[in-house]
Write a structure and sequence with these properties.
The complex is a heterodimer of chains A (812) and B (336). Chain A has 812 residues and is of the alpha+beta class. Chain A is built from 18 helices and 40 strands. Classes of the chains: A alpha+beta (812), B alpha+beta (336). Chains A and B meet through helix 8, helix 11, helix 13, helix 14 and strand 27 of A and helix 4, helix 5, strand 1, strand 2 and strand 3 of B.
Chain lengths: 812, 336
């Protein structure tokens, strides 16, 4: 909501705050100023100048040679306007002045005559679009005085952030209530300049003809068909107006509040809306068939061309303002073009209505539009201020556009407004706010906001809610908030009290994620955050209203998104990328919300350690992602094991395309289900430059509700030494190391404590395709030292088992 | 001859392993692979006497054995030198340390962790809920009727009519209270989604942290005290905290919470920052409590929601939120 600071002060005389103080106060009242603009900024150098003499320039037809008195005496000024008036006052920019936009006035010679300053037009001062002539100032001024202050231009435009519950703040009066020390009681609506003519004044006192379903005056008829959707419709007939530009004060006011002046009739309605928050509309009465207004639903198949020139099909769910035959406005949203006030309009019907907020909201949403009027109706306008609004708008039109009020104010009101009553228990105030307030204190805090104490019921206080708050303060708690707000949030103490522990256990998935994060960071991998939204290729759950095709689906897996960030790093020349992510993946479920699964994904590429003088330059390979999968698997699914993926089933669809068979793993939980995968990412699945090394990546599904990590039961340390034997197995082509190691373990018997593969050798001295795998076998017995014979025997058993299962023999 | 070679190799390896000091090791070396008298060397010299057919295999085996023995000697020498505390060239400690990669926790996660650590010490536990939720949990149960303008404040991403990506973490309030009875004292970090395009201060997906306390006798005073305590622990003891009236449909009274931090300038002088908005908060609206079947006359509570990415932005002097989601290693690596 944009407001003029001067306007605020005008509707509530007694606001004695600087603009800065007003902003600070509004912040603490819940209506912070998002932006403040000094409207006279750039006009500091401009003063009031008086033209003492004006005569045609001797050497130019269109120029005028003036003698201007400014702050520093008389100077010659050459002016481009032909009609400069002697003795009149104008904004004057002396030599050295800088105008808005940065134009600096210098001493110049124009066609042989010196000019020491400039008489300014509105557009040169950024005050309006009128650049045809210089800005003649009506009235008397002090020569040399600062121009902006002298003509009342010194003003600030506040852009106030108004929360959706506070429709009452969508007006100058509403915001002034928050600033005036007496609040509501401090509001005194000012007279309009030039509004003291009898015709205008009559609008403020003329009678009202009332009816519940319809009423008439001055040949016009107003009827309400749907009292649920329109509680009241006030009209006034004004005949003989002259539509034209608004007077300067009115245009200035509207501009100061961020509105664009249109013509004196429309500007009057906008002025009153900005002043009181009540949207108004002026119809060209001649365009209303039978001079009739019927508030009712659209008929099937109707449409309407609105003020903005759009043809809008309307439906029977929408409330219309109709004349005798057709819709002429969309109630509470926008008027129709055909009945709008134009240059030729003589008679008008002024509308001041109260529409049901939800109805206006539904209609304007269905039409995909929002207007100043609909915005206010949705948030609720003040039902108690309607008559004031229609009278002030009529008076303003009469004052600026002339004409006369015909007949009485027409008031069709199916359900007269009554102030709602809300009961408030002081004990409940203390219960919620933690501070005791007496009944008198409570009433004292609520009074400036317009709440009046109507009576007491036992200990409870009964308040009448003022019209401007009748949308949002209908419950006890709403009034308690107002007590707190008026008392001042900062006035409440801040004492910590003892608390009881909650009943909600700390969610185990957070705990698992904490552990995984620590593990992976310790492994040298950095945590990434990537969006869960991706393109169609990356997900099966579609958004109804996506922002772009690239963000139209919820990801089915997290690894592909992480790969995109590998690409992004590489595109920037970063070769060593180690990223992991904890995030959610989504799978569609027919006729239900998608299934969500927590995931951890990781990618590695580049050097295994930073470049340095000792070793470490080797690139990551598939065995590194195996380590990551093993780490995560052990933490998330105790007992999980890695298997080689040889193609086919095992990997979910979509994931299989990331890897080549035999170059990827499947992580299987102890129960057998696939809970993760990883491997060397296939060349087609990640778009990296030719210099990039292998990219390895993996992903693990996390359990929804991980079992708590069991406490470790420590094993006793062995009291006797182990014996070890190193064996080199010659693995012919096609034999898998894992099978050999597994057979070692299987054949070792109870004495075999450990099996470690400690070397893998490939060389020309071995048969083609063969590898030599060196394995250290560690044997130990509880409670005694093994003899060499026992160890040899156990070792032979291992070798036998390996030969039996895999056919592999040790190298001699 | 190959058998002979194998026999010698085994003997030599055992001798190498048994050598107790470098001198002894040197004697073993001379005995087996010394150029003149070495047994293996001697065997090699006999290669020429073999049949041409046998020669290549034997030659390869001999070379392999020589290599293996050389490696074993070197390894044992290294072991002995290590045991002895010297032997090799003097270490040069001006060389850079032997380094590994250092992983980093994402700066937004670090903020969440720090916030959690403080609330944990204030008796909170963590709760979570689904990222896809329905209008009841995201709006209606939170006292936000769909036909009220407050529902517009967050432009929501929908999957189908009624089904949406949660636009805030507040649905976790409802889901938690539906299952558990007071006292409730939870923190709910999680991802939320809005129909915002990427710019310096907006991303369509971002982290949020919800907090909720419900019990008997919980008041506005507790609310202010606990959040002020949090702010002072997070931003430092000199931090000022300000509560400004605001509006959220699910809290009443509602507040925006601002902090003014004290920063120490380079010249050592202390300086207050501007007020910075850090969270929306308030007393839980009785309608919310009624929606989950709590007796709102008996129980009261308070709640808050804050954006850790915004906090991270301020904490690290980052100008553009998008940096947090580009995952550039050079950016993430700074948060070690």
């Amino acid at each position: 909501m944009k407001v003029s600071f001067r306007w605020l002060c005008d509707v509530a005389p007694g606001i004695e705050l600087t603009p800065e103080e007003a902003m600070a106060r509004l912040a603490l009242r819940g209506a912070p100023v998002e932006e403040a603009e000094d409207l006279s900024a750039g006009l500091e150098d401009v003063v009031i100048g008086r033209v003492l003499e004006a005569r045609p320039h001797p050497n130019a037809d269109r120029l005028t040679l003036c003698r201007v008195e400014g702050a520093e005496g008389e100077v010659p000024v050459v002016c481009g306007a032909p009609d400069v008036r002697e003795g009149a006052f104008y904004p004057f920019a002396p030599v050295g002045a800088v105008l808005p936009g940065g134009f600096r006035i210098g001493k110049r010679k124009i066609r042989g005559e010196y000019s020491q300053g400039m008489l300014c037009s509105e557009s040169e001062l950024s005050l309006g679009e009128d650049h045809a002539g210089i800005m003649l100032l009506d009235g008397e001024y002090e020569v040399g005085a600062a121009f902006a202050e002298a003509i009342g231009l010194k003003d600030w435009r506040f852009d106030v952030e108004v929360t959706p519950n506070r429709g009452d703040l969508l007006s100058h009066v509403g915001i002034a209530r928050e600033l005036h020390p007496e609040g509501h009681a401090g509001i005194v609506l000012p007279d309009f300049p030039g509004g003291d003519g009898t015709a205008a004044a009559a609008a403020l006192v003329t009678g009202v003809v009332r009816g519940s379903a319809e009423s008439r005056s001055a040949g016009a008829r107003i009827a309400i068909e749907d009292p649920d959707l329109c509680q009241r419709y006030l009209g006034a007939v004004i005949r003989g107006v002259s539509v034209g530009p608004s007077p300067r004060w009115l245009a200035k006011r509207l501009r100061a509040a961020g509105a664009r002046p249109i013509n004196n009739v429309v500007d009057a309605t906008n002025y009153v809306m900005l002043e009181l928050g009540q949207p108004l509309h002026a119809f060209d009465l001649d365009r209303l068939q039978d001079a009739t207004i019927v508030v009712g639903r659209a008929r099937p198949g109707e449409s309407l061309v609105t003020l903005d020139g759009e043809t809008r099909p309307v439906t029977p769910e929408m409330l219309m303002i109709r004349d005798a035959h057709r819709p002429v406005a969309i109630a509470g949203v926008m008027g129709g073009r055909d009945s709008e006030v134009s240059g030729g309009t003589a008679d008008i019907l002024l509308e001041c209505a109260l529409f049901e907020p939800k109805q206006v909201r539904a209609t304007r949403r269905a039409l995909g539009m929002s207007t100043d009027a609909s915005y206010r109706f949705e948030r609720g306008v003040d039902p108690a201020a309607m008559e004031t609004a229609v009278r002030r708008a009529a008076a303003l039109i009469l004052a600026t556009a002339g004409g006369r009020l015909d007949g009485e104010i027409i008031d069709t009101c199916p359900e007269p407004w009554e102030a709602p009553r809300v009961t408030l228990r002081p004990s409940r105030v203390a219960h919620l706010l933690g501070v005791d307030f007496t009944a008198g204190e409570i009433a004292g805090l609520l009074a400036p906001l317009g709440y009046t104490l109507a009576g007491r019921v036992g200990d409870a206080l009964e308040f009448l809610v003022p019209g401007h708050r009748s949308q949002d303060t209908l419950r006890e708690v709403d009034l308690i908030e107002e007590v707190a707000r008026t008392h001042g949030y900062d006035a409440f103490p801040q004492e910590l009290s003892p608390f009881r522990p909650g009943t909600v256990p700390d969610h185990p998935l957070f705990q698992l994620e904490d552990r995984l994060r620590a593990l992976l960071v310790a492994d040298g991998i950095s945590e990434a955050q990537t969006p869960a939204l991706g393109p169609a290729s990356d997900g099966d759950v579609e958004l109804l209203n996506p922002m772009s095709a690239e963000e139209s689906r919820l990801r089915r897996d997290r690894l592909p998104g992480l790969l995109r960030h590998v690409e992004r790093n590489m595109a920037r020349g970063v070769r060593d990328v180690r990223l992991f992510e904890l995030g959610t993946a989504f799978a569609p479920v027919p006729d239900a919300a998608p299934a969500e699964s927590a995931r951890v994904a990781a990618v590695l590429t580049g050097r295994r350690a930073p470049l340095q003088w000792s070793a470490g330059g080797e690139p990551f390979d598939v065995y590194d992602i195996a380590r990551v999968l093993e780490l995560v698997g052990a933490e998330a699914f105790p007992g999980a094991r890695l298997e080689v993926w040889e193609g086919g089933d095992g990997l979910p669809q979509g994931v299989a395309a990331l890897f080549a068979p035999g170059r990827a793993y499947v992580l299987r939980a102890a129960e057998g289900g696939v809970v993760g995968w990883g491997g060397e990412v296939a060349a087609g699945a990640v778009d990296v430059p030719p210099w990039a090394g292998a990219v390895v990546g993996g992903e693990v599904l996390l359990p929804d509700l991980p079992a708590p990590k069991p406490a470790v039961t420590a094993s006793e340390l062995p009291g006797h030494p182990a014996s070890q034997r190193d064996v080199a197995f010659l693995l012919p082509a096609g034999t898998r190391a894992g099978d050999v190691l597994r057979s070692c373990r299987a054949g070792g018997g109870p004495l075999l404590e450990g099996v470690e593969a400690f070397d893998l050798y490939v060389g020309d001295d071995l048969p083609p395709g063969a590898r030599s795998l060196a394995v250290r076998l560690r044997f130990r017995a509880r409670g005694r030292t093994l003899t060499d014979r026992e160890v040899d025997k156990a070792c032979r058993r291992v070798l036998r088992k390996v030969k039996e299962v895999t056919g592999v023999e040790p190298r001699s | 001859m190959i058998d002979e070679l194998r026999q010698l190799e085994r003997e030599a390896l055992e001798a190498i392993r048994a050598a107790e000091n470098p001198d002894e090791l040197e004697r073993v070396r001379v005995r087996y692979v010394g150029r003149r008298e070495g047994l293996v060397s001697g065997l090699l010299r006999r290669l020429g006497t073999l049949d041409a057919a046998e020669r290549p295999a034997a030659g390869a085996a001999a070379n392999r054995a020589k290599k293996a023995l050389a490696a074993a000697l070197e390894e044992r020498l290294g072991e002995l030198a290590a045991a002895d505390g010297g032997g090799g060239p003097d270490p040069d400690l001006t060389l850079p340390p032997r380094r590994k990669w250092r992983g980093t926790v994402h700066p937004v996660s670090q903020v969440i962790d720090d916030i959690w650590a403080i609330f944990r010490s204030l008796g909170f536990t963590r709760a979570r809920g689904p990222e896809v939720d329905n209008e009841w949990y995201n709006f209606v149960a939170l006292n936000t009727p769909l036909d009220h303008p407050a529902a517009d404040e967050q432009d929501t991403l929908y999957l189908s009519p009624g089904l949406l990506l949660r636009s805030h973490t507040s649905p976790v309030q409802i889901r938690t209270m539906e299952v558990h009875q007071p006292p409730i004292r939870i923190l709910a970090p999680g991802m939320v989604y809005r129909r915002d395009t990427y710019d310096a201060t907006h991303t369509p997906a971002f982290a949020q942290i919800e907090g909720l306390v419900v019990d008997e006798g919980v008041t506005f005073v507790d609310f202010k005290a606990t959040l002020a305590e949090f702010a002072r622990r997070f931003w430092g003891p000199g931090t000022q905290v300000r509560f400004r009236p605001s509006f959220f449909p699910f809290t009443e009274p509602s507040a925006e919470v601002d902090v003014k931090r004290v920063i120490v300038r380079e010249d050592g002088r202390e300086e207050g920052t501007d007020w910075i908005e850090i969270m929306g908060a308030g007393m839980v609206d009785p309608a919310v409590l009624e929606n989950v079947g709590y007796d709102s006359e008996r129980y009261t509570g308070w709640a808050f929601g804050m954006g850790p990415a915004r906090v991270a932005l301020l904490r690290h002097g980052v100008r553009d939120l998008r940096l947090f989601y580009e995952n550039d290693m050079r950016f993430l690596g700074q948060f070690a």
